[in-house]
Specification:
Elements (H helix, E strand, L loop, with lengths): L1 H6 L3 H6 L2 H17 L4 E6 L6 H10 L3 E3 L9 H17 L1 H6 L6 H17 L6 E4 L8 H10 L3 E8 L2 H12 L17 H22 L3 E5 H4 L3 H11 L5 H12 L26 H18 L3 H19 L2
Parallel strand pairs: 1-3, 1-4, 2-3, 4-5
Helix pairs in contact: 9-10, 10-14
Amino acid sequence: VRVLSETDCSRASLRSAPAQVVNRVHHQVAGLSEQFMRQRLVRVMSTGRCGTKWLSEFFRHIGVESYHEGFFAVRPTEALIGYMNDLSNRWVLNRDAFYADRSRSADAYVRKVQQRFRWQRVTRLGARGLIVDTDNMLTPWTALLEPALQEAGIETRNLILFRNPYKTIHAMRTVEGAGAFPHRPDRFHHSKDAVMMAAEVWARIYEMALEFKERYPTFHLLKVEDFSSDFEKARQTLDFVGVTITKSRYEQFRTRLDVEKYRTSKVQSVRNSDLFHDPRFVISEAQMAEMDGTIQPIAEELGIDLAAAKTDYLQFHRDEKPRIFA
C-alpha cells in the first residue's frame, strides 16, 4: 500500500510502466505478504495413548508440517517431564498461583515455532504458516504458552483429543502401570491399583484441558473415532484448524491405514486402534463400575457415552483381540 501511494500508480500506469518498475513493485508487495504471512500453531492436548501419532501422520499426509513428539526437544528428556509434572502438581495444589505464574519458560518454545515459520518462508514447502504439535506431554504448559504465543503474534488452535476412555486407560495401565506411572504427576493419582491410577490420571488431564478451554479461546474437542471414520465430522475440525481437503484425499489416508496391522507396540504403525495389547488382560466390568465415579463427570463434559464406550471396549476384546494374537 505504501509503495502504490507514493508512486500514485493506477492499474493503467502500471501496465505502461517499465518492466523493471512493475517487477520491483510486485517484489515489494510479495515481500510484505511474506512478512505478514499467517502464523498458526495447532497444539494437541490429551493423555497420550489416544491417537496422537495417527493425527500427526494425517496432517503430514495432507502436507502440513506436523510433529508427533519431539518438536520441542530438551535433553535430558527427564528434565522436561519433571518441569511439566511440577506445573501439574502446582495446578492441583493452588490454582491461583498456577495462573499467576509470569515466568518466561515458554519463550524457548516460541523461538522454536518462529524458527520453523522462517524456514517455511524460505523453502516455500508444504502448507506455509501452519504447524501442528501433538505432543501431549506439554499440556500443563498451556497457561504459559498461550500468552507468550499471542505476544509473539502467533495464532493458536488447540485441540483436546480423546477416544474411548476405557481403551485409553487400558493402554495407560499396560504401558505405565507396572512402574506406578513414574512419568505422570504424583498429585494426579493416589490409588494403589494400576487400573484406577490410570483412570485418575485420565480424569485429571482432561479436567485440566477443559479448564484451559474455559480460560482461553480457540479450543475444539476432537473425538478420534469420529475424526477417523466420518469425513463431515473431520471437516469440522479441519475448518477450525484452517485446512481444506477433499473427501478423496481423506479416504486415501484411511484406506492406507485399513490394510495395516493393529498396533501391538508403540512403533509398529499409525493405525488407530487399541494400543499395546496384552492377550491376558482386559478391564473387567467390575473395574469399569469402580472407575466410573472418577471418569464420569469428565466424560460427560467431553460428550462421551460411557455405556456405548463399555460395549465397544468389551466387544473388541471379545471378538477382535483373539484374532490379533492368533
